[in-house]
Specification:
The protein is α/β, with parallel strands linked by helices. The chain has helices spanning about 40-50, 90-100, 105-120, 135-145, 165-180, 190-195, 215-220, 265-275, 290-295, and strands at about 1-15, 15-25, 30-35, 55-60, 65, 75-80, 150-155, 185, 200-205, 210-215, 225-230, 240-250, 255-260, 280-285. A hairpin with a 2-residue loop joins strand 4 (about 55-60) and strand 5. The two termini are about 35 Å apart.
């Protein structure tokens, strides 16, 4: 069973198409990267999933059931624009949000205290949100998102405002949630985070889905057949290869970028190289998610 499927979801505003027939499939117990430039349609899709707005057409299913009101309690949503009550104390805030998600008063208090203890911030319990730093408030928002143990979690730019230490803490919690059976939809502009965390991705640009698949599949699709070789001495490559760059690193030590055609295997390239140089390192230059993103989006959305 898939965690979420969207079929031909469309949303129009007066002078604007926010989503144009978007379909995607999110496997259960995965971290799914929902990517795209500003204005692409990501937030609109997230709001439809959370039933904040409705689609004009198309259908969304959650764990095999058509999206309906009862799914609100099974989803944890961390919006990019945070929404804490500044005058409430941290303990009151967490308890309130937990009760909104269906927990009883005692269970809400117990779970709130357990998370506060886990994050080693028990002394924040009686502090007002307005007295917290941005990073501290972000922690409270994250706890309120996951405390009711939702099966589907949507995180919109969850690392915004975090220093590296706290970003690492939240990363660890996200991976732990996945291990416990949660499915996480992860919307971000930080491609290094996508590289580290996401199992599958979808890229939306100008209201349309333009890419979807496992991270491994996507990278394989955009392989360029380019290899980075560190070797001794300069050389000329055979005509069947393209030498993109040859750089002297130190003394007689060089680094070359060589592109092969689709009919040439890496093993053949290695054999040919060993006839003209002493090879010290041979690595395929696989495109990063950032490079793929930039290639496909070409600088951003026009919306």
């Amino acid at each position: 069973m898939e965690a979420l499927t969207a079929s031909n979801v469309t949303k129009r505003y007066t002078n604007h198409i926010a989503l144009d027939g978007v379909s995607l499939t999110i496997p259960k117990q995965t971290i799914f990267g929902l990517l795209g430039p500003n204005g692409a349609g990501k937030t609109t899709l997230i709001r439809i999933i959370n039933q904040i707005i409705t689609a004009d057409s198309g259908e969304i299913s959650i764990f095999g059931e058509k999206l309906n009101a009862k799914h609100i309690g099974t989803i944890g949503y961390l919006p990019e624009e945070r929404g804490l009550y500044k005058k409430l104390k941290v303990g009151e805030q967490l308890t309130y949000f937990a009760q909104l998600k269906g927990l009883g008063k005692k269970e809400a208090v117990d779970k709130s205290k357990a998370w506060i203890k886990k994050f080693e911030i028990t002394d924040w319990w009686n502090k007002k949100v307005e007295d917290l730093s941005k990073g501290m408030a972000q922690k409270i928002q994250f706890i309120s998102t996951v405390m009711h143990e939702p099966k589907l979690i949507i995180l919109d730019e969850p690392f915004s405002g975090f220093d590296p230490v706290n970003a690492q803490l939240i990363t660890r919690e996200i991976l732990e949630l996945k291990e416990r059976g949660c499915t996480i939809i992860f919307s971000t502009h930080r491609m290094e985070t996508v590289e580290d965390l996401c199992d599958h991705i979808a890229l939306i640009n100008k209201s349309k889905k333009i890419l979807e698949g496992s991270k491994k599949q996507v990278k394989a699709t955009y392989r360029t057949g380019t290899f980075a070789v560190e070797h001794v001495g300069a050389f000329n490559v055979p005509a069947k290869y393209e030498l993109l760059e040859q750089k002297n690193l130190e003394d007689t030590y060089f680094r070359s970028l060589i592109k092969v055609n689709e009919n040439t295997s890496p093993n053949q390239l290695i054999r040919d190289l060993t006839e003209v140089t002493e090879v010290h390192s041979f690595v395929e230059k696989v495109p990063t998610m950032s490079e793929i993103f930039i290639t496909l989006v070409k600088g951003g959305s026009d919306e």
